[in-house]
Every structure is written in structure tokens, then in C-alpha cells.
Design goal:
The chain is built from three helices and eight strands. It has about 160 residues and is an alpha/beta fold. It has a single domain, classed as 3-Layer(aba) Sandwich (Rossmann fold), CATH 3.40.50. Keywords: Glycosyltransferase, Transferase. Pfam families: Pribosyltran.
Length: about 160
Amino acid sequence: MDERETLTWETYGVAVRELAQQVADAGFVPDVVLGIARGGLIPAGSIAYALDCKNLFTMNVEFYTGVGTTLDVPTMLPPYLDASELDDTRVLIVDDVADSGRTLEMVDAFVRGHVAEARTAVIYEKPRSVVKGDFVWKHTDKWINFPWSTLPAITDRSGVRDA
Ligand code: 5GP
């Protein structure tokens, strides 16, 4: 049995359309799609197109430093989002995967006092996640290879600040 779950670009295309369909079927019409960079930015853009939503925001959060290795807590990186820009909006928070769920939990708490309503959409959710996504394409407990981060980077930016 494969130790990893591999998402191809082709299946990714199907996954984001089906995820967007879940949102539409639930009758949730977001004013803003908020993608958690970097991994959530890619599905956030695709879902924003599928839902015909032109307001795309991003929050840059780092947690994982490798397969299964993390910083102590999910950490916001610049450019920082001014949460008051989301005042009274309906927001769809999008990430690639809720693994521990702590990134999603942090972003949700960050916007919660501002927005009228926040819902979460992820391509994958793992059983241990502390947050249960409102919209989930697939459940797995494996490490996931995403099409955008499986190949090594073409350039080596080690030592470059905020790479
Ligand atoms: P969490 O805070 O839910 O533990 O994880 C947040 C982020 O860590 C995800 O958005 C993703 O960027 C990264 N991550 C967590 N699990 C995986 C995984 O199985 N595969 C990959 N490629 N990244 C992961």
C-alpha cells in the first residue's frame, strides 16, 4: 500500500471543482475567498474562479518545515493581513490540507471577530485535525504529495530572507 497520497494536476482540477460545487450546493456565497499561503493560495484561486468571486485575499502562514516536522506554532509571515479589511464579510477560508488543523484554527480565530461569517474549505482533511472543515474533498491520514510542491524547486534560495 502507498505510504503517500499523491494528487496529480489532473485530479487537482477535478477536486477544486467538486469542492466549489459543495460550497455552492450549501448556498454559501462568499464575499471574500481567503487563501492560506502558500499551499492554500492555489486552490483558493481556482475556487474563487469557480464561484465567480473576485475578492481574493491571502494570509501567509508557515508551520511545516519538512515531512512531519513543524515550528512550535503556526506563524504569520509578511505581508500581514489587516483583518479589519474583512469587516462584516462572508469569508471562505481555503487551504490545501487540514492536518493538525492548527493553521486553519489560527486563521479562523484571527478573522472571527471581524467577519459576518467564516467557513473553511480544504482539499484534504486528516482524522487528527482539531478543526473540522465545512467543505472537504477527501479524507486521508497519509502524507500528501501536492503537484505544486512535489518536484524540487528550480532555483536554490537558501539563505535568501523570506524565501
Ligand atoms: P496543519 O496546521 O493543519 O497541521 O498544516 C498546515 C499546512 O502544513 C498545510 O496547509 C500544508 O501546507 C502543510 N502540510 C500539512 N500536512 C501536509 C501533507 O500531508 N503534505 C504536504 N505537502 N503539506 C502538508
